[in-house]
Each structure stands twice: as C-alpha cells, then as structure tokens.
Amino acid sequence: MPVSCRLEAGAQLRQDLHESFTVRFYSESQEAVPEPKVEVESIMTPLIMLESICLMPDFLRSLPVQERYITAGSETVSIAVLQQLATDECEAVRRRVAENPRTPDNILIDLATDSDCEVRMTVAEHASTPLSVLEMLALDACADVRFGIAENARTPWHILRMLSHDDNPFVACRARKTLETVVASHMQTAA
C-alpha cells in the first residue's frame, strides 16, 4: 500500500477515534480523563490498524493528544510505539505509557528520570519497575514520588525502612504504616 493511502486511512481512523472518545483538559494540577462513549473492545481493531501507521515517526506526533493517550494505554500496542510515546510532549501520554503493563524495563528506566513528578510516581507504582529504579526514586526530590513508594505494599522492606526516616514527615509516617501492614500480613501468613 502506498504511503499516501496509509495516510488517508490514518486520517479516517483519527476521525473515527475522535468521535468515539472525548478528553477534558484541566489545569496542570489535574489529569486529563478520557470518557469512552463506546466499549474499549470495539476500538481494539482500529488500534491494531493504527499500529502499522504509527510506526511512521511523524505520524504519532500528528495525532491529537486523546488518540496518543488511548494508544499508550492499549494492551496491544507495540514496544516501538510505546518507545515513541514515552517521549511525547504531553505528560498525560507519558504517564499512560508508564501505566501500561506491556512497557518494558528500558522504557520505565527512561521515564524514571522524566521532568514530570507524576510520570515518575507512575513508574514507581508499575509492577515491573526494576529494584534499582525504585531505589533511585526513593531518593527523588519530589516528596509525592517518595510518598507513592512509601504507600506501596510491594515496595521492598529496605526501601520502606529508608523512607521511614525521610525528612518529610508525611513520607516517613506513610512508610512506617506500610511497614507495619506488611509485617502484620507476613505474620498472619506464617501463623
């Protein structure tokens, strides 16, 4: 299929997806929240079609932010597209990449140094985030990132112990409470 035909298909797909989803935009302190008008399963075929089109570097950047957001959260998105979306100008798209269970370690490592603290916080909450990245994020300048790690029961004990002595009293208190919860659940399991 010639490139011009692929771009025409992409334009129609953009229109179809745009009619299926809306995104509200808020101030920087609030998230953009998609409101699906159709079931997610019904858009999976267009997202798979979008996959081959998205491999063209400039195409992803030309999509509206809500389509990049939807694509970043897709369970069928390719690693190549996730890699491109991980550098998106919109922090909500980068956060969505960090939330995606398919996102590999190398992309999570890159996102762990993102300029947006909410992106870094999302990396810290990802189930596959490498231990070395969690250790690095436990020292993050943003207290919200450290708090997110401190409240996560999957955080290793040595990191929770370190955070229990954090300079921020909220982070330290949360880490102590999480440690207490983890210890109590281990004691119940052992009994």
Can you tell me about this structure?
This protein is 63% helix and 4% strand. By secondary structure, the protein is mainly α. The protein has a two-stranded antiparallel sheet. A hairpin with an 8-residue loop joins β1 and β2 (33-36). The longest helix has 22 residues, at 169-190. Residues 1-11, 16-29 and 33-45 have low confidence and may be disordered.
Please outline the helices and strands.
Layout: H1 3-20, E1 21-24, E2 33-36, H2 44-54, H3 57-62, H4 65-73, H5 79-85, H6 91-99, H7 105-111, H8 117-125, H9 131-137, H10 143-150, H11 157-163, H12 169-190
Antiparallel strand pairs: 1-2
Q: Given the structure, what is the number of helices?
A: 12
Beta fraction: under 5%
Instruction: Give me the count of strands.
Output: 2
Spatially, the strands of the biggest sheet line up as 1-2
Residue share in helix: 55-70%
| Biggest β-sheet description | 2 strands, antiparallel
User: Which secondary-structure class do the elements indicate?
Assistant: mainly alpha
